[in-house]
Amino acid sequence: MAERRSPIPSKPNWFRIRRLPVGPEASRVLRIIASNRLHTVCSAAACPNKGACFEEGTATFLILGETCTRGCAFCNIPAGAPAPPDPGEPERVAEAAALLGLRFVVVTSVTRDDLPDAGAGAFAETILAVRRRLPKAGIEVLVPDFSGSGESLRTVLDTRPDVFNHNLETVERLTPLVRSRARYDRSLELLALARRIAPGIPTKSGLIVGLGEAVEDLHGAFRDLASAGVARLTIGQYLQPTRNHPPAARFYSPEEFRELGEAARSCGIPHVLSGPLVRSSYHARTMAEQAAGSRAEAGSENSGPPGRSS
Questions:
Q1: Of 39, 119, 157, 220, which residue is the least packed, with the fewest Cβ within 10 Å?
Q2: Burial of 304 from C-beta contacts in 10 A (0-12 / 13-18 / 19+)
């Protein structure tokens, strides 16, 4: 019997992804990425913003290959047995970032449960390589959960990235169904531990909606993230990558995204970017600059009682 595939539901009339033609700047980005034998999460995860970001001369580097040891239901990155880490990759990331003239570099990875340090060393080496080539650039890392290893977390934080990001992805009730081998509480513990280890490094997380959660579930996640010390949050719409992935349970309207952003801020997360096409590294530099500016005016972005925003 042929495998049944879930139909990709029609998007609402107001939900339109602007598909940009490959212009000269996007071609340059793709050429630099390819010539340095690198990967981007923009392409690997089928990000809806990749055309716009490439045309703006930006990309999010995906290190440690394109094969993940997990297989989360929402994700387009294939699961399987990854190749060994490439020791030359950190320097090539730095080279590509320099050629692109980036002022803010975002680095993420597939999950590597097969490695003793879960890939933390590769993050650290990449941060250091970028610092050598671009000492004035900001660096944001979006890391997996490292299976909860505090030692791996310290390896990354000791290199002092400018922003530490780990995605909660979904609400507690849906985590066992959506996130392969991940735990809701472990992700929150990792974010809280990052704040304790390196209180000067802002922590960030991301949620995708439309997987079957209730608004009350999301409010609970906002409160949990605020309690873990998270000061920056992205909220975006789940889009079914292929017919082999579960369909979206619903599409949130722009007004509902505005309400979610307001709810997250009222729960104590000062800086929230919420919208249908928002992704973890979407406008990362702009968000970091705006947060830094408001922090300079209002003090530490993690200070103040729940509900206070800066």
A1: 220
A2: middle
- Residue-wise pLDDT tens digits, 266-309: 999 999 999 998 988 877 888 898 888 875 434 445 543 333 22
H helix or E strand, kind and range, residue 60? strand 60-63
Measured distance CA(82)–CA(114) in Å, rounded: 8
Collapse the DSSP code of 154 into the 3-class scheme (helix H, G, I; strand E, B; otherwise coil) and give the result: helix
Domain ranges of the chain: 21-161, 169-182+192-310
Amino acid in position 30: L
Q: In 251-282, which positions are buried (b, 16+ CB within 10 angstroms) versus exposed (e)?
A: bbeeebbeebbebbbbbbbbbbbbbbbbbbbb
**Residues 59, 53: contact at Cβ < 8 Å?**
yes
Closest by CA position to 127, among listed 169, 157, 102, 167: 157
Inter-residue contact 88 to 134 (CB < 8 Å):
no
Query: Amino acid letter at 44?
Result: A
In sequence order, what are the beta bridge partners of 265?
Answer: none
Whether 265 and 26 have beta carbons less than 8 Å apart is answered as no
Given a cut of 70, the residues of the chain with pLDDT beneath it are 1-10, 14-23, 41-58, 295-310
**Residue 130: Cβ within 10 Å count:** 27
- Beta carbons within 8 Å of 249's beta carbon, 6+ residues apart: 210, 211, 212
**What is the separation, in whole angstroms, between the first and last Cα of the chain?**
57
Instruction: Write out the CATH class of domain 169-182+192-310.
Output: alpha beta
Maximal C-alpha separation, the chain:
63
Q: Which helix (H) or strand (E) holds 207?
A: strand 203-209
> How do beta strands 163-165 and 39-40 pair?
unpaired
Q: How many helices (H) and strands (E) does the chain have?
A: 11, 8
